[in-house]
């Protein structure tokens, strides 16, 4: 059984839903949540961390809904890693890490810093005395302090230089924990996640093995995302359809941006199995064959 | 040459933060400066318009034929924001939040004495509807704001665009649109483009030539295709290997 899963979860702020009936399991080998700004990926991450209650549906932690679970055990099992700005600017980073440890285990700070590739002597520094990459390592060390089984990572490298990002990705790949990675960067997902879910306007539009989604996307939105990523020495990134079209309120939410939209798309497509993945598109077969 | 730089050195409090022996950008050409945080790439770009406050600058910088380091304030105003436009990473932060985009456009045209210029053609060039002029900056998306900033440059008759990480805050799909707009403007209007970016993959798809900067110095420069395919400097190789 997977440790954490969402079952038909609808999430929102006030009465306005921004994530609609999403079901997904956090399986082994890393799970990626991919989407643009406003797709609902961070909202979903907040729900997986127990920071936001579903309007309907449930987040399941083992065999019980998260709202009925032992939160102390949950917090030891599941830890967030946000962007490095999450550190208290006045606190020495060693203390930031120590806070997460039981009193008797505070001597482990140096060991944790070493585990994330930092010199234990840096424990006496404050966040502004460290580089962006070092700060991100401290955030990871603090998350590891309680011995979690799952890390929920929200854009952990998007503010970093490429060389620093590469080293943080190496570190995350080598950790012995499961991970849910939220990002708009497909290359990062490819590196760290065996399975991926593509979100558009709060709905999962395609799920499956990351390698297959990127090699042969079945949803026009997945394909638009992939083709927009510039490749070294490759053709100029392709813009498929205009991005400023707002998601459609009825039918397929992507249809106003979709170059393949047909009248049938006014009916909302259900997620269905196509060629080894789940996809919500009436024209998935056409996308695959074109 | 729309931009011509020789022996540019920029110092803050005596410390050399950018040292660029040579940089030329011709009409219709795109040159990219790549490097990581602190490499001096943004400082170089800002110094081309005389926008580095409290910096000691030496060398020779010519933009649109104006010698920037010795020009009068009046001559500088003529190129800044008009013949040479600056496009920043966060367009929404660069636009006055309490001013509708249409008002902003009108004021900028008036300020530079270019009321007759064609706003519609400028908006069309960046694929924006005229309707956007009624909106405030917070009512448009990041990609729309960035395209508006480019439209403003076009309406003002820009011959050179200096862009500092113009797409790094945008979603990839939106980035593709903005890059498409910049490429088209280069081809159709012979615009010179100086692009500062940390994204080597992006640079490889748009730039003719590239300068790689590290710790204030240019470590490698040349045609983009050559530098990125066969990097000569270990740092360029390191940057390329770090691409995920």
UniProtKB/TrEMBL annotation, chain A:
Record SUPFAM superfamilies: P-loop containing nucleoside triphosphate hydrolases
GO BP terms in the entry: peptide transport; transmembrane transport
Any Pfam family hit: oligo_HPY
Top-level taxonomic group: Bacteria
Family that this chain belongs to: Belongs to the ABC transporter superfamily.
Name of the protein in its database record: Dipeptide/oligopeptide/nickel ABC transporter ATP-binding protein
Keyword presence, Chloroplast: no
One GO MF term: ATP hydrolysis activity
Organism annotation: [Actinomadura] parvosata subsp. kistnae
Keywords noted in UniProt: ATP-binding, Nucleotide-binding, Transport
Domain ABC transporter: from-to ranges: 4-226
């Amino acid at each position: 059984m997977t440790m954490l899963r969402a079952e038909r979860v609808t999430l929102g702020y006030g009465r306005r839903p921004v994530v609609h009936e999403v079901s997904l399991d956090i399986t082994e080998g890393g799970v990626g949540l991919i989407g643009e700004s406003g797709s609902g990926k961070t909202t979903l991450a907040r729900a997986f961390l127990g920071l936001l209650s579903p309007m309907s549906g449930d987040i399941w932690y083992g065999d019980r809904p998260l709202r009925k679970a032992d939160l102390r055990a949950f917090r030891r099992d599941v830890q967030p890693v946000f962007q490095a700005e999450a550190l208290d600017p006045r606190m020495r980073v060693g203390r930031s890490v120590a806070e997460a440890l039981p009193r008797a285990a505070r001597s482990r700070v140096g060991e944790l810093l070493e585990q994330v590739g930092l010199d234990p002597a840096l424990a006496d520094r404050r966040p502004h005395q460290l580089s962006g990459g070092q700060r991100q390592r401290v955030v990871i060390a603090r998350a590891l302090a309680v011995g979690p089984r799952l890390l929920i990572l929200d854009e952990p490298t998007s503010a970093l230089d490429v060389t620093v990002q590469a080293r943080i990705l190496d570190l995350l790949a080598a950790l012995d924990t499961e991970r849910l990675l939220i990002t708009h960067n497909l290359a990062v997902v490819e590196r760290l996640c065996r399975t991926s879910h593509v979100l558009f306007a709060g709905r999962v539009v395609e799920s499956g093995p990351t390698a297959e989604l990127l090699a042969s996307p079945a949803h026009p939105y997945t394909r638009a995302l992939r083709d927009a990523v510039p490749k070294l020495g490759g053709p100029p990134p392709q813009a498929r359809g205009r991005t400023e079209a707002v998601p459609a309120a009825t039918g397929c939410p992507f249809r106003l941006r979709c170059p393949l939209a047909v009248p049938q798309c006014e009916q909302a497509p259900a997620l269905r199995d196509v060629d080894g993945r789940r996809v919500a598109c009436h024209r998935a077969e056409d996308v695959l064959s074109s | 040459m729309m931009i011509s730089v020789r022996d540019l050195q920029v110092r803050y409090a005596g410390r050399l933060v950018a040292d660029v022996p040579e940089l030329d950008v011709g009409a219709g050409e795109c040159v990219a400066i790549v490097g990581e945080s602190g490499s001096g790439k943004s400082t170089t770009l800002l110094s081309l318009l005389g926008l580095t406050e409290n910096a000691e600058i030496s060398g020779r910088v010519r933009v649109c034929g104006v010698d920037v380091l010795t020009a009068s304030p009046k001559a500088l105003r003529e190129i800044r924001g008009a013949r040479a436009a600056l496009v920043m990473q966060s367009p929404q932060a660069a636009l006055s939040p309490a001013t509708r985009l249409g008002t902003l456009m009108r004021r900028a045209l008036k300020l530079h004495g270019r009321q007759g210029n064609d706003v519609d053609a400028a908006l069309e060039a960046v694929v924006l509807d005229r309707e956007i002029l009624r909106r405030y900056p917070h009512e448009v998306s990041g990609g729309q704001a960035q395209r508006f900033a480019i439209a403003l440059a076009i309406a003002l008759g820009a011959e050179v665009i200096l862009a500092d990480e113009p797409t790094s805050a945008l979603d990839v799909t939106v980035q593709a649109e903005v890059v498409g707009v910049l490429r088209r403007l280069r081809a159709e209007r012979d615009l010179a483009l100086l692009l500062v970016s940390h994204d080597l993959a992006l640079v490889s798809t748009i730039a003719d030539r590239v300068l790689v900067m590290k710790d204030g110095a240019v470590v490698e420069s040349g045609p983009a295709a050559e530098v990125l395919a066969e990097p000569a400097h270990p740092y360029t190789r390191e940057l390329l290997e770090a691409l995920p």
